[in-house]
Automatic annotation (TrEMBL):
Domain Signal transduction histidine kinase internal region: 166-230
UniProt GO MF annotations: phosphorelay sensor kinase activity
Entry's Gene Ontology cellular component terms: membrane
InterPro entries: Bact_2-comp_sensor_kinase, Sig_transdc_His_kin_internal
Domain of life: Bacteria
Protein name: Histidine kinase
Keywords tagged on the record: Kinase, Membrane, Transferase, Transmembrane, Transmembrane helix
The organism of origin for this protein: Flagellimonas hymeniacidonis
Keyword Transmembrane helix: yes
Residue ranges crossing the lipid bilayer per the database entry: 12-31, 77-110, 116-135
Length: 339
């Protein structure tokens, strides 16, 4: 779609043969009658017209390439008008020079104004057709590009909606929690009920806050504590909260829960040691820090937090960051507030 057919080698080779022959035929019809057409069709002038057709079409093609690369004027309409005027003027100059050289050096007399007018008119139309082909191609390209952008936007919107739906449901956590409940309820029904209550509280929070843009940090931390208790029943490294910020700042709902889940899923399981998650506050950031002991080939990085990164970019200019050193891994979230 992006490459116009006039740049194809086969078209450049064959098109001037037909257009030059057509120009010669039109000139014969202007200067002669139909009865004389058969006697005068083949001649030296035919090859001159074909040669001129090659010259004009190659010049028109080159002018299209030049104007396509020009940065000025920026307006497509102004550039098109300038291209048409310059192409026709240079086309007239080339045809007039070629016809003058042919008439004076081959026919040994100067061409009159009528002959120059006929040749210039016909070849100017050919050059104009080339420019109009390019303009129509550009319009078609812009229209199709706009349609493709709308389709891509619609596709991305559907994917984002599906991702949000999947993130809210969190099928992996759902099935793991149900499996844990089924195992525990056979031994201890009271404990199974506690797991069910935590499970219900976490999902109630995730689903009820789905339409809220921001929530207080305190609400998120309360749910995070229940979330960590729920995860303690699953076959992952146990996690506990360490230092906790006591700020009234706001966070995107579910962001701390998703980070904690990523931490647990990338940490080596252990029945002995726990992961301590410190949630600290600086002047412009909320810091989630822990000592990392990650699985081989599975570590927490910024690519695992694309959903959180996308959510926070609507509210803050500072990006979500993941910093890794020998001892600690730290996730930085921009500090949000309504002020």
């Amino acid at each position: 779609m992006r490459k116009l057919f006039i740049h194809k080698p086969l078209f450049r080779l064959l098109s001037p043969l037909f257009s030059g022959t057509l120009v010669y035929l039109l000139i014969l019809l202007i200067n002669n009658t139909i009865d004389e057409l058969g006697a005068n069709f083949f001649g030296q002038e035919l090859y001159v017209c074909i040669g001129l057709a090659y010259l004009i079409q190659e010049y028109s093609r080159i002018s299209i390439i030049i104007f396509k690369r020009l940065k000025w004027p920026s307006s497509f309409f102004l550039k098109t008008i300038l291209q048409i005027i310059s192409t026709i003027l240079i086309n007239i100059a080339l045809v007039s020079l070629a016809m003058y050289l042919y008439f004076t050096m081959v026919l040994y007399y100067a061409p009159n104004s009528r002959e120059l007018l006929i040749f210039n008119s016909i070849f100017s139309v050919i050059a104009l057709i080339y420019v109009l082909l390019y303009v129509s191609h550009q319009f078609l390209y812009m229209v199709n590009t706009e349609k493709l952008k709308k389709e891509e936007w619609a596709r991305q919107e559907i994917e984002d909606d599906f991702t949000d739906f999947k993130r809210g449901i969190n099928p992996e956590l759902l099935f793991e929690s149900l499996e844990a409940i089924l195992v525990v309820m056979k031994k201890d029904s009271d404990k199974a009920e506690q797991i069910t209550d935590r499970f219900a509280m976490v999902y109630r929070y995730l689903l009820s806050k789905k339409k809220d843009e921001l929530v207080p940090l305190a609400d998120e931390l309360r749910t995070l504590e229940e979330f960590l208790q729920l995860f303690s029943e699953l076959p992952y490294r146990k996690m506990q909260l360490g230092e906790i910020a006591s700020s009234k700042m706001l966070v995107v709902p579910g962001s701390l829960l998703r980070i904690a889940e990523k931490v647990m899923r990338t940490t080596i399981p252990s029945e002995v040691e726990k992961v301590t998650l410190n949630i600290l506050e600086s002047e412009d950031k909320l810091t989630i820090q822990y000592k990392h002991e990650e699985k081989i080939g599975k570590s927490l990085n910024i690519n695992d937090l694309q959903c959180i990164k996308r959510d926070y970019k609507y509210y803050a200019t500072e990006p979500v960051q993941v910093v890794h050193d020998d001892l600690y891994k730290t996730v930085y979230l921009p500090k949000l507030s309504l002020v």
